[in-house]
UniProtKB/TrEMBL annotation:
Cofactor list: a divalent metal cation
Entry keyword Nucleotide-binding: no
Domain of life: Eukaryota
InterPro entries per UniProt: HARBI1_dom, Znf_SWIM
Domain SWIM-type: from-to ranges: 613-652
GO molecular function: zinc ion binding
Protein name (record): SWIM-type domain-containing protein
Keywords: Metal-binding, Zinc, Zinc-finger
Native organism: Mytilus galloprovincialis (Mediterranean mussel)
Taxonomic classification: Eukaryota, Metazoa, Spiralia, Lophotrochozoa, Mollusca
Length: 694
């Protein structure tokens, strides 16, 4: 049976508002009112205690007695609100007037949103951490008795919105010695904590840029991800936010655990356990909602992630999903397990690695990542694809429907028939046959249609490698976690990154133009072959590019329309830089004597010194009408190769703009050439002998 506590003065029983009679002045006052001595463990209700406080304040002068009560009374309140203060410390009166802004200290109103306390709106005491945060970032002092709504707090700190919303009520404030000392100590402790470690518990300790640089996500995205990890709990060593921060910093930077232990002020074993706990929580609570065949149905995928360009190029059915498949590599250490070493050594890359099969949409959205797989000769892209379908990994057969489109590269050529048997329509770039040095116009055009869409999977793989742990040689300790790490990164990319390819309605018109041009023949190639312009020399005359005044002036939009992409335009300044003569700075061309609107140019290959590509460009004063290049893809009419684009870019745009291609040879001058020997050994010996004789 609970003990019946009664007020020593009024005799009423109020369990929720009882206070022990500890202060000697209060004890004397209660004895005078009741006419008896107050024994130990007696209590007083809040109403009688307020009456006593009013009687003390009503006194004409502030005596030492009243000061003693106020000190003890404030000490009791501060001890309840501030766990860092000592209950036995006697606080001085607030008689220090400073020009520091402060909020109100009323219990009835929230200091942030000014809502009034009620049965529905419960206010709580502002924690010490939040008061220190407001003083550091806003210069506003919050009294220990102030209240706020619980929704404004997160881990004993004010949220960013609440911190921005809080306003001061007073320009000047009264302090006592304890307020000033406590405020300085808390500010010092906060600053020391922030300068000695990465602190993800306080969102204000790191800027939004710091969050992105260290974790790969913004501050709001980090907070949102942490709120979804329901299976992760706070521990005595680290919080949920700190545990997630350790995992993301590990993935983003690839730093060893010894360095992470210094950054987070934890031991190496604690870092390892935190990574393991956060990884399991992400795989359980976060990844299934953003990656895999089960997180999105077929219809939603088609409506949300099929681009208009891809639909018009490869699909006649609006309900067909367009999937782009490719494998990516994760490099690992050389293992002491010889059997594992053999099956994970790639003869293609000449190093140990494991493979992941990435399946993305035409806008770059990562549908799923499967693996890891071995990297020996039995595990190429084609065999991995067959394994996925035969084993029905993650119930892929149920998700994939008939007439879906699979866009692949040449590494899948052995699986084309297998994919076709499962109802998939396969699109793949053509490859050169034996004895063939250049694609035909039709083959080059079809390959360009595929690469116009397929580039997103390479960019998606590049996004994955932005997390440097997956771009480095991964320690063998993490081999069992490679698949989980890649899936976590892919889920973050889906959730926190914009699409790689925009759903531009103009893609329909662009697709129609590309399909129309893919059916055209290359008339310039036919003319070069019929008139033997490849071998003839006397039909050409050398001309300076600046003397070619009738070449059309083009804008960047005109160049994009000719190239049907931006990759060739990005390569154009680099090819032009090498083609310019280092001494004179002239751009040399050859003009066909009988055809003044047809020019020839030779461009050095960027891959090898032995390859020089010859190209022809036909033009009129308004636009470029045709082209042909001797490179592998130079015969296509759907856009042009980078060699042709570099000449068109220089003649039609660079000559008339202020854009500079940059100095040439900047890197070459910083690297020595061992073949550059001005003197032979014999010359050096003879020079030495002559010097000795002299």
């Amino acid at each position: 049976m609970a003990k019946d506590y009664k007020c020593a003065i009024c005799g009423k029983c109020r369990l929720k508002h009882k206070r022990p009679i500890i202060n000697p002045v209060l004890r004397k006052y209660a004895s005078k009112i009741t006419g008896r001595s107050i024994v130990e463990n007696e209590v007083i209700c809040s109403k009688c205690r307020s009456t006593f406080k009013r009687s003390i304040k009503a006194s004409t002068c502030t005596t030492q007695t009243s000061t003693s009560f106020e000190e003890t009374d404030e000490s009791d309140d501060d001890y309840v609100n501030d766990p860092n203060s000592c209950k036995n410390d006697i606080l001085s009166p607030k008689n220090i007037h400073l020009k520091i802004c402060s909020t109100h200290s009323s219990h009835k109103y929230c200091i942030v949103c000014k809502r009034k306390s009620s049965n529905r709106v419960k206010l709580c005491v502002v924690p010490l951490e939040a008061r220190t945060q407001a003083f550091i970032h806003k210069g506003i002092f919050i009294d220990s008795k102030a209240r706020c709504c619980s929704s404004h707090l997160q881990n004993h700190n004010l949220t960013q919105e609440s911190l921005f919303q809080i306003q001061a009520k007073y320009d000047r404030s009264y302090f006592n010695r304890t307020d000033i000392v406590t405020m300085l100590q808390n500010v010092r402790a906060t600053l020391l904590k922030q300068t000695t470690r990465l602190n993800f518990d306080k969102t204000s300790s790191l800027s939004n840029e710091d969050y992105y640089n260290m974790t790969g996500v913004s501050k709001e995205q980090f907070t949102d991800i942490a709120s979804r990890l329901s299976s992760l709990r706070n521990s005595s060593v680290r919080s949920v936010e700190a545990c997630l921060g350790i995992l993301l910093v590990k993935l983003r930077t690839g730093l060893p655990n010894t360095i992470l232990s210094t950054l987070f002020c934890l031991t190496k074993n604690q870092i390892q356990r935190s990574i393991h706990s956060a990884k399991n929580a992400m795989m359980a609570d976060y990844v299934p909602n953003h990656l895999g065949f089960q997180h999105i149905d077929h219809e939603t995928f088609v409506n949300s992630h099929n681009t208009p360009l891809a639909n018009n190029l490869f699909s006649n059915n609006e309900n067909s999903a367009i999937l782009v498949l490719d494998g990516t590599y994760i490099y690992i250490q050389k293992s002491s397990n010889y059997k594992f070493q053999r099956v994970c050594y790639s003869m293609h890359k000449h190093r140990p690695l494991v493979k992941m099969m990435v399946i993305v949409a035409s806008d770059g959205y990562i549908l799923n990542v499967l693996g890891p797989y071995r990297s020996d000769g039995k595990n190429n892209d084609a065999s991995i694809t067959k394994h996925i379908l035969r084993k029905n990994e993650e119930d892929i057969k149920h998700w994939v429907q008939e007439n879906d489109v699979a866009i692949v590269d040449r590494g899948f050529r052995d699986a084309i028939e297998f994919l076709a048997k499962h109802g998939l329509h396969v699109e793949m770039p053509t490859y050169l046959k034996k004895g063939q040095s250049q694609h035909t116009t039709e083959e080059a055009n079809l390959s360009r249609l595929v690469t116009k869409v397929r580039w997103v999977v390479d960019s998606a793989n590049g996004r994955i490698k932005h997390w440097r742990l997956l771009d480095k040689v991964l320690h063998n300790h993490y081999i069992t976690s490679i698949g989980d790490f890649v899936r976590i990164v892919c889920a973050i990319c889906n959730d926190c990154r914009p699409p790689l390819s925009k759903h531009n309605p103009d893609g329909i018109q662009l697709a129609q133009q590309m399909l129309e041009k893919s059916r055209q023949n290359n008339n310039i190639k036919t003319m070069v072959e019929e008139e033997n312009l490849m071998r003839k020399r006397t039909v050409y005359q050398t001309v300076n590019s600046f003397d070619l005044t009738d070449f059309p002036v083009l804008t960047l939009d005109d160049l994009r329309e000719l190239t049907m992409g931006i990759y060739q335009i990005k390569q154009a300044p680099l090819y032009t830089r090498e083609h310019l003569a280092e001494e004179s700075g002239l751009y040399e061309l050859h003009l066909v004597r009988d055809k003044p609107n047809l020019i020839r140019c030779k461009i050095q290959s960027r891959h090898t010194n032995s390859a020089v590509h010859t190209l022809w460009i036909e033009y009129n004063p308004d636009t470029v009408t045709g082209w042909y290049c001797t490179c592998k893809a130079g015969a296509r009419t759907v856009g042009c190769c980078a060699h042709i684009a570099s000449v068109i870019w220089f003649l039609g745009y660079q000559r008339y703009s202020l854009i500079k291609s940059g100095p040439s040879g900047g890197f070459l001058s910083s690297v020595m050439d061992a073949s550059d020997m001005p003197l032979t050994d014999s010359d050096s010996d003879s020079d030495t002998n002559e010097n000795v004789e002299e």
